[in-house]
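== Folding task for one protein ==

=== Format: two labelled lines per protein ===

==== Paired sequence and structure tokens ====
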Amino acid sequence: MAIGNTLEKAKKKFEQIILENNLGYEGVFVSAGVVSTQQAIGNPNRQDYALLEGKEVMIEAEFKGSFGQAFTSKPTTFTGSLAEVLKNPLARSEDRAIFVASLNGVMAYLKRVSGLRHCRDEEPEVCAQQIAEYIHSKYVKVKIGLIGLQPAILYRLVTNFGPSHIRCTDLNRKNIGQYKYGAKIWDGGTEFRSRNRNQITLIVF
């Protein structure tokens, strides 16, 4: 399913959740702004995260004291009602980021989802280990597709399953074609659809 269709479905569901919980539109405001690298990820030992290299930027939306985040290549600020968030089309990267951050903030407020702020300091390493251990406990050996190069997760997946069981895609031209921890980084815009999809039984985002 195309990402645009997925977000449109999420948008309709989001509107339904707002109505079901009587959040209304008037007087309910989301304030979104750019999160600094220090705020987003802290000071991890590993220095090859996209956030630290400036390839990605994070915005954070606050909704009634709860927070949601989203990655984007086009950060922007926004203050408005949930109705305005829903009214904005999702054609632009900045509007998609505001929508996702706002959605996450509301879900955190409703306590439907937890852990909606990025791991900091050495937490990404712990998270990556937990992901690899969980997958291993469920599937033992499996072909895994990692969408987007997250170095800690890739390292742990390769360590637990071996590089031949991992297909990692990325959109950063600097990474495409390179080998990280023994696994080749494929072009997420073209090669995943044409060469890798049929080889994968589990996808990790």
Q: What stands out?
A: Residues 123-204 form one domain. The chain has two domains: 3-109, 123-204. The chain has eight helices and nine strands. The beta strands are 29-35, 57-63, 66-72, 78-81, 144-147, 166-170, 179-180, 183-187, 202-204.
